[in-house]
């Protein structure tokens, strides 16, 4: 169907370092598949970590209706940070290995199809969250998944198989810390293997940490996983990949708008899979409907 209104500005932010499909020329795909009667594209490449946030903020200030992140969840997070609480909508051309937010939002992983979604956009407002002030749009976590994010950040290898190898290796060395989670007026204490905060339902790669999570309900799903041995880890992996984690006795779920966590020792933590550092005290907050996206929800 041909567009009858004047074309609007669409700003594309491409992380040239992201993804395992580097042979694909995204600018060529945009030329071939973007409807230029709907969008006037401008493509900019990131030059360093953090640059995508600056570019997105500038595009929003200049009034771009659409700002498209081209990369993995790290790039999506950086662009989304710059668009939070603005009138510019986030689009995604998924090019990472996990693509958690893109998958949750029903954005095709096939890039021509993802461009097709932008040609006939459906706009939605979604929630976002922040852990110790670091915004996230998909998931954040403390404990084993924080450790994995820190080790993955130092690794040059990418892709699912490298990730699985790393998870297995680190599992053997992981030591859970005594932690108290204060949620909905209750205090829950344990040596948690993982405390995960889910705005969206999955980490990426269709690994569902909170299958019931609704990205528009103003609540985050908190998933608490207590002590895990080898047998439980295998069960947990199966539960993540089959959306069955909520039916196992390994995970406990709570929904809330804010949660705080105190740990006896510093713990690694991540936001959208990106390693954020270590801390003993955590506050996780929800910002309802704070980001507009093009999605198929
Ligand atoms: N020009 C650049 N040079 C180096 N790093 C960059 C550049 N642009 C962005 N980055 C950083 O690259 C990191 C990884 O990006 P991203 O997550 O999108 O890709 P990925 O790691 O390949 O994908 P996935 O997380 O799905 O495996 C981000 O943390 C971002 O800050």
From TrEMBL:
Keywords: ATP-binding, Kinase, Lipid biosynthesis, Lipid metabolism, Magnesium, Metal-binding, Nucleotide-binding, Phospholipid biosynthesis, Phospholipid metabolism, Transferase. Residues 5-135 form the DAGKc domain. Pfam families: DAGK_cat, YegS_C. Gene3D superfamilies: 2.60.200.40, Probable inorganic polyphosphate/atp-NAD kinase, domain 1. It comes from the Bacteria. Its cofactor is Mg(2+). InterPro entries: ATP-NAD_kinase_N, Diacylglycerol/lipid_kinase, Diacylglycerol_kinase_cat_dom, Lipid_Phosphate_FormReg, NAD/diacylglycerol_kinase_sf, YegS/DAGK_C. PROSITE patterns: DAGK. GO terms for molecular function: kinase activity. PANTHER family: LIPID KINASE YEGS, SPHINGOSINE KINASE. This is YegS/Rv2252/BmrU family lipid kinase.
């Amino acid at each position: 169907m041909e567009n009858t209104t004047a074309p609007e500005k669409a700003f594309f932010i491409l992380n040239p370092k992201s993804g395992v499909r580097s042979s694909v020329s995204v600018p060529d795909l945009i030329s071939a598949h973007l409807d230029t009667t709907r969008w006037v594209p401008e493509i900019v490449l990131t030059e360093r970590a953090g640059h995508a946030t600056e570019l997105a903020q500038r595009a929003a200030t200049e009034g771009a209706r659409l700002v498209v992140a081209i990369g993995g969840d790290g790039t999506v997070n950086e662009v989304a940070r710059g668009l939070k609480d603005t009138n510019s909508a986030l689009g995604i051309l998924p090019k990472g290995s996990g693509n958690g937010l893109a998958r949750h939002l029903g954005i095709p992983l096939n890039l021509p199809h993802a461009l097709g979604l932008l040609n006939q956009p459906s706009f939605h407002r979604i929630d976002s969250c922040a852990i110790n002030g670091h915004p996230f749009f998909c998931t954040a976590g403390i404990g084993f998944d924080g450790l994995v994010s820190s080790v993955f950040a130092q690794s040059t290898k990418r892709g699912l198989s490298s990730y699985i190898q790393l998870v297995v290796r680190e599992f053997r060395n992981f030591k859970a810390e005594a932690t108290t989670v204060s949620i909905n007026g209750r205090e829950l204490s344990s040596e948690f293997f993982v405390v995960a905060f889910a705005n969206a339902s999955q980490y990426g790669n269709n690994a569902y940490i909170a299958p019931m999570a609704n990205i528009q309900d103003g609540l985050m799903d908190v998933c608490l996983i207590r002590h895990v041995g080898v047998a439980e880890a295998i069960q947990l992996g199966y539960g993540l990949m089959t959306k069955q984690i909520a039916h196992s006795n390994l995970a406990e779920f709570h929904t809330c708008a804010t949660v705080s966590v105190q740990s006896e020792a510093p713990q690694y933590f991540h936001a959208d899979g990106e390693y954020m550092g270590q801390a003993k005290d955590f506050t996780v907050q929800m910002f309802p409907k704070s980001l507009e996206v093009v999605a198929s929800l």
